[in-house]
Design goal:
59 residues
């Protein structure tokens, strides 16, 4: 396979729109709250913290 074969490949069009950054941030915050409420292990609380940090980065 050479560069001509790969150059002719087209990216498939998607009918669905990707979720917005704000929608992703809201979902991550919701998941973090659920983990904090129902979490029993340190790993779950750590994951909730990571979700919150990621949501803050998206905003």
């Amino acid at each position: 396979m050479d560069y001509r074969a790969t150059a002719s490949v087209k990216k498939p069009e998607s009918d669905t729109q990707a979720p917005s950054r704000q929608a992703m941030a809201l979902e991550l915050k919701r998941q973090a709250n659920i983990l904090r409420d129902e979490g029993k292990t340190a790993a779950e609380f750590w994951l909730a913290d990571q979700y919150e940090k990621t949501a803050n980065l998206l905003n």
